[in-house]
Design brief:
Elements lengths: L2 E3 L6 H6 L3 H4 L7 E2 L3 E5 L3 E7 L8 E6 L2 E8 L19 E9 L9 E5 L2 E7 L15
Parallel strand pairs: 2-7
Antiparallel strand pairs: 1-7, 3-4, 4-9, 5-6, 6-7, 8-9
Length: about 140
């Protein structure tokens, strides 16, 4: 595979860090979350879908730097008083989101595209089109 999440099973430290998976859904002390993503391989490349509920397009950044594709976003929460009662529990996330992927040599970094609709970020990372050299006759002088 030419597109590997940076927190993949190939990272042995991540296996031990994620051993207690139910705890992974709790916000960390620094307010950083890792959005869940789906990665699909197609004939022409890879499609990455990330759910970013509560994130606005202007608070979202997608960048490619030295072979690493990064998704960063911030979801802000405004504390508002309830007129009809006291808020007892809130299960909406807010804070910073971050996810990155190592791109292999088979990805065309310059052709990666993104769209953001209804809280879902979709990235398309096309594969490099490999051209086989044509056989040609070399003239002898």
């Amino acid at each position: 595979m030419h597109l590997i999440p940076r927190t993949s099973l190939l990272d042995i430290d991540a296996v031990f860090d994620n051993f207690f998976a139910p705890m992974a859904n709790k916000p960390s002390l620094n307010g950083l979350f890792t959005p869940r993503v789906d990665v699909r391989e197609t004939a022409n490349g890879y499609e990455i879908s990330a759910e970013l509920p509560g994130v606005k397009k202007e608070d979202l950044t997608v960048a490619v730097d030295q072979g690493v594709l990064s998704i960063e976003a911030e979801s802000r929460f405004e504390n508002q008083e309830e007129k009809t009662g006291k808020l007892v529990r809130q299960e909406r996330r807010y804070g910073k989101f971050s996810r990155s992927f190592t791109l292999g040599s088979g990805i065309d970094e310059n052709a990666i595209s993104a769209r953001f609709e209804n809280g879902v970020l979709t990235l398309v990372a096309p594969k490099v089109i490999e051209q086989t050299p044509e056989k040609r006759q070399v003239e002898i002088h």
